[in-house]
Design a protein that fits this description.
Order of helices and strands: EEHEEEEEHHEEHEEHEHE
Number of helices: 6
Number of strands: 13
Structural class: alpha+beta
Number of domains: 1
CATH superfamily: CNF1/YfiH-like putative cysteine hydrolases
Radius of gyration: 17 Å
Largest sheet: 6 strands, mixed
CATH topology: CNF1/YfiH-like putative cysteine hydrolases
Distance between the termini: 23 Å
CATH class: Alpha Beta
Oligomer: single chain
Strand order of the largest sheet: 3-4-7-6-8-12
Length: 245
């Protein structure tokens, strides 16, 4: 379900597991960051980001566990993080420890065990996907993969994401089935489907229940930030946590 400022993912998580995605609407930022920019590393005025994060915080039971995303494969335990750490995914087992990912074209992936005992959030741009960030996150959840579900959030869509041969090769050389996620778009150019690539990676990790997909950040400038479209831009947040049972 989407309201003016927030998206509430539609997937069959247990009632005590909550998830939320921000849009760019609302907030106090201006210019290329206009709206609810939650990224404190993109050049926006810090006071605006602080005010925007306060608006988000009002929707949550506690402060999110923010990480410094670096397009890698490091996964950290949100139950144990103190201060910002370099990572691209978090997992949590304790109530009110909120896993958070910031994006503006990269794919945010939320994960939840069927019984709601563990949740996770991963930042899956093409580099992280190719390197195995989703497989690493599933592994860090330490739960049978067949009993984990995933939700794919807003990302640059397959009709908008042009890449070169090196990106296609990074996927196809590791997982040949990935060839179906690329469509030729001129000499040495391809249109890549991040959603399909994520589904293939999750399937390889043993996760077969995958929801979401289809919200194109590049094409919907009213609702979403897009780095590929605008260059100077803000960031949305995708969050998941365990509430009190």
């Amino acid at each position: 379900m989407m309201t003016s400022n927030w998206i509430y993912p539609d997937w069959p998580t247990p009632k005590h597991v909550k998830s939320l995605v921000s849009t760019r609407q609302g907030g106090v930022s201006c210019g290329g960051y206009a709206g609810l920019n939650l990224g404190d590393h993109v050049g926006d005025h810090r006071i605006n980001v602080t005010k925007n994060r306060a608006l988000l915080r009002a929707q949550l039971p506690s402060e999110p566990v923010w990480i410094q995303q670096v397009h890698g494969t490091t996964v950290v335990n949100a139950d144990e993080v103190h201060g910002a750490v370099k990572a691209d995914a978090t997992v949590a087992r304790q109530a009110h420890h909120i896993c958070a990912i910031l994006t503006a074209d990269c794919l945010p992936v939320l994960l939840c065990a069927h019984d709601g005992s563990v949740v996770g959030a991963a930042h899956a741009g093409w580099r992280g996907l190719a390197a195995g960030i989703l497989e690493q996150t599933v592994s860090a959840m330490a739960h049978p993969a067949g009993q984990i579900m995933a939700w794919l959030g807003p990302a640059i869509g397959p009709e908008s994401f042009e890449v070169g041969n090196e990106v296609r090769l990074a996927f196809v050389s590791d997982l040949p089935e990935s060839t179906h996620a690329f469509r030729s778009h001129g000499k040495g150019k391809w249109l890549a489907d991040l959603y399909q690539l994520a589904r293939l990676r999750l399937l390889r990790a043993g996760v077969t229940q995958v929801f979401g997909g289809g919200l194109n950040t590049y094409r919907d400038s009213d609702k979403f930030y897009s780095y590929r479209r605008d260059g100077t831009t803000g960031r949305m947040a995708s969050l998941i946590w365990i509430a009190e049972k």
